[in-house]
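Quick one: examine the sequence and fold tokens given here and explain what the tokens say about the fold. Here goes:
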Amino acid sequence: MSKSSRSPPTQIAKPPLPQCEGPKLNAFIDDDAEITFLRLLSTPDPDAEAFVFEVLIGGKSYALKAFKYYDDAEDLFGLADHERDEAPVDHLDYYCDPFYNEYRAYGKLVENNLNGEVAVRCHGYLMLSAEYENQLGDRFPDLEWDRPSEEYEKPVSSRSPLRAIVKDLVLEANIWKPYVARRMLRDLRKMRQLGIYPMDIKPENYTGSKLVDFSVAITLPNFLFDVKPAFQIQGYMNEDLGAFDAMMQEQKVKTRQRAFRDNATVKKLRSYKDQD
């Protein structure tokens, strides 16, 4: 699906956002290039935070992750009353919205010259006019974008844009071998040293044995680390390590490489997760 007379130019948000403390990710530089949506790479899961497409932009192949409309009423969900009082309500979305989660994580990797090294390379973010939603709806009718009903009462040109992040297109399967497991764990530890906690470690969030999904990542600075009790903060910091070991066990990787040194820690994490 290429841009035509019915499809307005790709929109770019400037300056880099969000406007709060923490890492920033630049906009995709080729904002006037033609965009062609080739196919849906992710599943049309109605509970997904985003949908991933194989696209051509300016004749080059990319993976474009377009995020669903986010309901900011969910931002305070799961916070105790006293934690809500301490939460930065004026820009809480910047720390909770899946788009911003990924934006901040990749921004941190770019700032530390690790873009493409420990996760699939990111090329920046795009703001796509709402007309793209109509066009994608014609081609992929099963996709639900969760746009509020009042938005549809506005002219298409006045509706909020779709937010997207552009990445390398990687189609290689994951390799579940001990030597690859060592590299994957090394990459995860490098992210964590920077203050990026991916949280959601599972096989489908890797492509070519590189992490590709940060939609629930916690990247420092983050208000959660200021308002949550110490035991929950420790749980956040350790969750991806426990998930990494579980993933390797599920994939039957015969390796002594472990994120945790003992099973007791993993059991404690699972217990914490049940209570959270």
Observations:
- The longest helix spans residues 230-250.
- DSSP finds eight helices and nine strands in the chain.
- The chain has two domains: 1-170, 171-211+229-276.
